[in-house]
Amino acid sequence: MSDFVGMNGAAESFGDTAAQREVRANDRQYVFHSWSAQDAIDPLPIAKGEGVRFWDYDGNEFLDFSSQLVNLSLGHQHPGMVRAIQDQVGRLATIQPAVANDVRGELAKRIVDASFEGARSVFFTNGGADANEYAIRMARHHTGRSKVLARYRSYHGSTATAITLTGEPRRWANGTLDAGVVHFMGPYLYRSAFYAQTPEEETERALAHLEQTIQFEGANTIAAIILETVTGTNGVLVPPPGYLPGVRALCDKYGIVMICDEVMVGFGRIGEWFAYQAFDVKPDLVTFAKGVNSGYVPLGGVVVSEAIHNTFAKIPFPGGLTYSGHPLACASGVATFDIYEDEGILERVRDLGERVVAPRLAELAARHPSVGEVRGAGLIWSLELVRDRESREPLVPYNAAGEAAAPMAAVVKACKDAGLWPFAHFNRLQLAPPLIISEADLERGLGIIDAALGVADTFYTGQ
Prior knowledge:
With about 475 residues, this protein is an alpha/beta fold. It has 13 helices and 18 strands. The strands form 4 sheets. A 7-stranded mixed β-sheet has the order 6-12-11-10-9-7-8, with helices on both faces. The mean pLDDT is about 95.
């Protein structure tokens, strides 16, 4: 493990307590953190990242099993990504979105080519939340309708419409910022709202519920249905067979725009360019961010169908962003496509998911009573932890905090103490490592999770 280059460009050493103190002091004094009570947190200062690992200032190493916020698909400091940004900085660091730019156009072309038949163009944003905001705006102007249906157990961002679309507790304190949003229940067989016993029943009943919602809300008032193709943070809920094609059929029947939110699972997370490609469905709009360039420079966007693109052929689209299609972001996006092809990323994600992760997690579930269910695909998975398999009581209550969340906190601490940075939410231990992870590192991380599940087992109360 080498030293690292600090903010002033000089080489610094791990164990530099003065540097660590300064980073922590500046953070605590001047940085306002998201989703946090400011006096209740003490963020860990991070000194360096490389590949699938990062280090704190004491030299403690962490295997990154969350890809930071499920965005660092190509890992820390990938040389191809760094080089693309450096080359672009030297040539043209920034330019406004109203002019044509080579890397912006090239990236848009590659995204359209990799997307659905009938895709026409890309509207670039700065991230996933504003991608969802603009997709909804497009759908509303295209249809002349105002309502949007979104699922519970979803996250679509924290801007006004996006947080209203969100179907989990982060929405609650923000009120109803977009009065046109209506929520409905999606499929979740393990905790079925429809008393289903099989995936087929869950699909049939979830679609019947959705159609009733459409009818009760008034189909001619509904512009769009937005859903995460595979629900991410809220449980890695893979849609059961036939569900997404069924949603597509309902959208066609009632003239509703279908929006697939691929912010988390797009660009290879389940082994396809876009996750909807694994479910035999063609959306009208697709939102993306995160994996498009691994977050090296903020970037998101909307893939726009021919029909919706043509709505704005003669009339202006009412929206825009100063940094839309920023050259540095787009250059790293173009590099992402090249790296995925050169390194066979999609193929290796499918291989590692099917050959390594799925059987290993099934084996862990068989040995650890606290594992109620394993779900996932490619390199995004969830272990749902329970106190009792028969009753399916969660390891911690929904949206638990403080002492009520202590069992999950203990599981997370066991992971970190062993050198693994996990992805956890509510009663679930989830994994989403960088897509470049080696099989050996994947096995090592799964071994750490195995040990941490021993901690979860101590809270098990079932037979």
